[in-house]
Amino acid sequence: MEDLRERLSNIDRRIAGALPRRMLFVVWTEPLISIGRGTFIADALRRAGAQSVVDASAEWPRINLEEIVRLQPEVLVFASAHAGDTQHDIDMLRARPGWRSLEALRRGNIVIISDAINRPAPRLVEAVEQLARAFHPDSFTRGGSPATPANFAEEACTCAR
After folding, report:
1. What is the three-class DSSP state of 73?
2. What angle in degrees, to the nearest 10, is found between the helix axes of 40-47 and 2-15?
3. DSSP letters of 121-146?
4. Model pTM greater than 0.90?
5. Tens place of pLDDT per residue across the chain (161 aa)
6. CA 72, 76, 82: angle at the middle one, nearest 5?
7. How far apart are CA 60 and CA 133, in angstroms?
8. Cα-based angle 95, 160, 119 (whole degrees, multiple of 5)
């Protein structure tokens, strides 16, 4: 337990002073569902240095895509046990008119995180670490080269292009 606290403290130190990344956590695409501000996933994302563009009190709010286009999140976040399946879904979203209006999708600012983020268990800390690194890569460099902590599994946090 102390190790988990230390890992979270390490994230806090590394991203201290960094501006939160404005993101959309996509739970489901049709209908479009995200996370509310009171969920443990929203807490984990805040801990990783991000802020949801969805500010809803409902835990799993349905969102209007037009509103998301207006809000223009910097990053889209998807959770998946199989990044390849999610990549296929993202490729399909790129073809949809409303989704094509999202700058994050056009620029490839997409993070596919391990589905460990979906469960309030010790592995959630690993997901927070992965997200913090994806949102604030400059905070995880040593001497100008990217840090590669042993607990980061490359396949678990993929930036889709």
Report:
1. coil
2. 60
3. STHHHHHHHHHHHHH-GGGGEETTEE
4. no
5. 789 999 999 999 999 999 999 999 999 988 999 999 999 999 999 999 999 999 999 999 999 999 999 999 999 999 987 767 788 888 888 888 888 899 999 999 999 998 889 998 989 999 999 999 999 999 988 544 344 333 323 333 455 54
6. 160
7. 25
8. 105
